[in-house]
């Protein structure tokens, strides 16, 4: 009897195992089906009429209907299809700007209603057209099949840039804004960069320019004087590249050099003596000459420095009275605290506060010195502290009793993906010669650290009138 009972139990166990295996196989099949439901694209050429051949300056037209299968988001939900049309128009190489504009707008005006009939399921806003002049690499893209005027303007500008010396022009009309045409990506020989920039400015077309080792980028209209400076800097001995992202960033010149090499100082002196700047903007331009193996020199192009500025008050309160007779604040007069932090896309900001705890007004005129500490109390290595703005200097702020001054810390977001030693405390010297105060950076209900890591670059402002605490 015992043996028969044992046999039955074994049979039961075997049955359970078999059922479990079958369930696992079934679940695996379901998962495989779900994972296999990727997007799928199908395309088919559209047979167009010959009407486009009547447009002067058009060499060829190709239209392709594209269908994208989008899997249902939930299991069991039916897939859906999105349809669009891609049009490629090749123009003759010898057209002038106005001729290219006329040909492009005319052929697109003819094709749009025909495509609507031949591909009725295609959404106009997802369809696109591109115009190509193959001999010089001109390509103008249009998101949607309108507006025709923007396409015409883009084609006219692209051909004008080619005629000025551009070897390739690429721009997308879908990036047009009401207040600014779409930016063009332009390549040219270094000798032609200034001429190309001049035409772009005349056409009111923003451009990114690349020519040899010279690279100029701007979301505003190009300044030919700035472009000429970048090109000239790129031709200096040992320079590997010269780059300017106008109007906010400094000119960056990279040289094949190491710390202490004479070439860094030579290029820096040349930039400081450059006499063809400032250009249309009239603004002074900072530069940084950086060695590929270390070393850096900074200054202002042409020796033209900006006027000194001071930190504006925080908040919108009335300015505090300026009392020339107010004594300087002492450390025992100040209560220094961490004032919180904020984050935007790619950038970070935090604040320090120093409250006047004495019985009367006192004056402060300095930038706080800050050291960044990790959870072990060790200072972050290689942190570079920079002025909040290149021309900013401390202002004398008379702090009424009980009020607070504030200072801002700005830095770029740093990756914490591999669990690095983030900053958990700040060691702050509020006034020169004063003792250091260590502050935690955690705030109730908010972050407990700052993503200021080894090698960070932090900009620190002078003390300025703060908000009410």
List the helices and strands and how they pair.
Blueprint: H1 2-35, E1 40-45, E2 58-70, E3 80-91, H2 97-118, E4 128-133, E5 138-143, H3 148-163, E6 166-172, E7 184-188, H4 193-203, E8 207-211, E9 214-218, H5 224-234, E10 239-246, E11 251-258, H6 262-272, E12 286-293, E13 296-300, E14 334-344, E15 347-356, E16 362-364, E17 369-373, E18 384-387, E19 397-399, E20 404-412, E21 425-429, E22 437-440, E23 457-460, E24 464-465
Parallel strand pairs: 3-4, 5-6, 7-8, 9-10, 11-12, 18-23
Antiparallel strand pairs: 1-2, 2-3, 4-5, 6-7, 8-9, 10-11, 12-13, 14-15, 15-20, 16-19, 17-21, 20-23, 20-24, 21-22
Helix pairs in contact: 2-3, 3-4, 4-5
Organism: Nocardioides albus
Pfam family, one: DUF4232
Protein name: DUF4232 domain-containing protein
Brief rundown of the structure:
The chain is 22% helix and 33% strand. It has six helices and 24 strands.
Structural class: alpha+beta
Question: Count of helical segments?
Answer: 6
Write down the overall geometry: globular
Q: Major β-sheet, in short?
A: 13 strands, mixed
Domain DUF4232: 329-463
Region (Disordered): 298-319
Organism: Nocardioides albus
Keywords: Membrane, Transmembrane, Transmembrane helix
């Amino acid at each position: 009897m015992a043996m028969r009972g044992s046999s039955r139990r074994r049979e039961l166990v075997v049955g359970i195992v078999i059922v479990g295996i079958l369930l696992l196989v079934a679940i695996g099949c379901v998962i495989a089906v779900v994972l296999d439901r990727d997007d799928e694209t199908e395309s088919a050429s559209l047979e167009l009429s010959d009407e486009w051949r009547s447009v002067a300056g058009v060499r060829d037209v190709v239209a392709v209907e594209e269908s994208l299968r989008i899997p249902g988001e939930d299991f069991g939900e039916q897939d859906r299809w999105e349809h669009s049309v891609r049009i490629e128009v090749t123009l003759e190489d010898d057209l002038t700007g106005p001729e290219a504009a006329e040909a492009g707008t005319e052929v697109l005006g003819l094709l749009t209603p025909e495509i609507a009939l031949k591909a009725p399921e295609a959404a106009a806003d997802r369809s696109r057209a591109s115009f190509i002049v193959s001999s010089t690499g001109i390509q103008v893209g249009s998101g949607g099949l309108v507006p025709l005027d923007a396409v015409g303007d883009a084609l006219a500008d692209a051909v004008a840039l080619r005629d000025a010396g551009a070897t390739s022009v690429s721009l997308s009309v879908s990036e047009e804004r009401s207040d600014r045409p779409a930016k063009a990506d332009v390549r040219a020989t270094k000798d032609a960069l200034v001429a190309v920039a001049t035409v772009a400015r005349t056409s009111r077309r923003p451009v990114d320019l690349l020519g040899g080792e010279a690279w100029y980028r701007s979301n505003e209209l190009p300044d030919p004087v700035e472009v000429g400076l970048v090109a000239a800097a790129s031709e200096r001995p040992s320079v590997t590249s010269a780059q300017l992202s106008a109007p906010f960033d400094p000119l960056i010149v990279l040289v094949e050099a190491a710390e202490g090499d004479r070439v860094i100082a030579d290029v820096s002196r040349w930039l400081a003596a450059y006499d063809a700047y400032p250009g249309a903007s009239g603004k002074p331009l900072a530069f940084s000459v950086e060695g590929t193996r270390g070393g850096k020199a900074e200054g202002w192009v042409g020796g033209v420095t900006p006027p000194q500025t001071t930190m504006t008050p925080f908040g919108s309160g009335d300015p505090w009275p300026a009392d020339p007779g107010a004594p300087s604040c002492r450390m025992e007069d100040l209560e220094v605290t961490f004032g919180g932090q904020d984050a935007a896309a790619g950038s970070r900001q935090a604040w320090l506060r120093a409250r006047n705890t004495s019985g009367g007004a006192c004056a402060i005129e300095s930038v706080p010195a800050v050291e960044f500490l990790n959870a072990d109390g060790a200072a972050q290595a290689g942190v570079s502290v920079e002025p909040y703005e290149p021309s900013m200097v401390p202002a004398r702020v008379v702090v009424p009793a009980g009020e607070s001054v504030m200072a801002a810390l700005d830095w770029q977001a740093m990756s914490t993906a591999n669990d690095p030693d983030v900053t958990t405390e700040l060691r702050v010297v509020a006034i020169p010669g004063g003792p250091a105060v260590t502050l935690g950076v955690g705030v109730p209900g908010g972050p407990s650290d700052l993503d200021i890591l080894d090698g960070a670059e932090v900009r620190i402002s002078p003390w300025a009138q703060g908000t009410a605490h």
